[in-house]
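Blinded run. Sample ID left blank on purpose so nobody reads anything into the name before looking at the predicted structure. Input follows.
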Amino acid sequence: MDTNEQPTFKSQKGLIAYLDVLGYKNFLNNNLVDKIANIIVDILYKIPENIKNNKIEEIDSVFKFQNETLKKRFLETISCKEVNLNSSSLDNVDEILKSFNIIMVKVLQNIIYFSFSDTILIVIPYSPVKNDVEGGIVNNLIKVLFGYYISDLYNILFKNGLPIRGVITEGEFILDDKNHQIFAGKPLIEAYEESYLLEISAVVISNKNHFSEEFLNAYKFMKLGTLFKYSIPLKNKEFQNYYTINPSVAWEYNTREKILESFVAHNKNLPESAIQKLNNTEIFFKYFTKNLLT
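Blinded prediction complete.
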């Protein structure tokens, strides 16, 4: 092997989403290789890349405020104090917005997406900044941005017949910096263990080390709504409260028949082990549409 191709390992902190495609083994067993390959390429690889590109476009539009009132609202959000429309603080807001825009686009461009078998790993490498106002704002923006990215992925995969469950967490991992791949890390193991227990199609924010509170506070800080709190059913027939990524797909998949379509799409059948996940997802979606606004 050429030494130039050798991986370069380094320790890196970041946000991690560990996702599990439900019914994947069933999907593999019931389809021809060509069809499997096409679905994997068209759904599991192209969709995440399309979401990333769409998010970059959205970030550009969000930060290019032309309205002074919107600039005022943004400044008030990030400074946590009222701003006068005639204040000199608005004079350099365009530069502030430009710097945040550059940071967020770079964050999106550095997203690592890794899919193998029924597992999807998505990581945003970043080092949290402490004791710095703008650094704190960036940390919160990154969490919210990641949450919206995973929400889009969850909803689009569900519509494409690949319901997922998973956990969003934060921590340190080993990264191959040259090839942009993840290899190991305690957060990956912990996220796998949490995800495995979920008896439902949902993506939750990990309860480890108070991370869910940090993630929730990021949403509140940016005044972009909040996360959805739900009592998630587990394999041991117990329940645990989690903040979850909003399943906006529930507005369209609002009947058992529609939800079943996703669970059995691509020639998947519904084994006994999947029926309870289907039931729990149906209850989850109904609760969401009944109790939350769009």
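Unblinding after everyone has recorded impressions. Residues 33-63 form the longest helix (31 residues).
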